[in-house]
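*** Protein under study ***
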Amino acid sequence: MRAGAWVPVVAGVGVAVTLGVYGRVHQPPGGAVELAGFLRPQTAKVWLATGVAGLAVLQLLSALAMYDRLPRVPPAAWQATLHRWSGRSAFVLSVPVAVHCLYVLGFQAGDPRVLIHSLCGCLFYGAFVTKMLVIGRPEGGSSWALPAAGGVVFTAITGLWLTSALWFFTH
């Protein structure tokens, strides 16, 4: 593997570590930032995160279809468009949630659920940067790099949703 092939991974790790360090050293103001006019910012975050998780499932299915991994669903041009726009939408929905979590709450490690949530948040944005840089490479990256980065993004989103929205809905 060429040394340049590691650039997306190093950039992604840099983003993940930078977010984690910022979240840890930043002194959260302790107050809530209003999101989308909901009564409670937590409610807005939960529903935005649920939207991101739903779009992530659509991302997974559209990627499997594009790579001809779904039975009886032949690859089609519209699948790539669906994949791109569901990914863009998921990212846009995730930004207000991430800003609120990072600025108001910071990186927390006092409780195992919250620690996992904080780690998954940093991992998500780091893996997202890696995936975008792999896509942007002239040679398109290795045959395994793009699915691996996408898998890490999906895993991080799943971990985020399980440790936040599912927890909120069940407690």
Notes: Residues 9-170 form one domain. Residues 77-105 form the longest helix (29 residues).
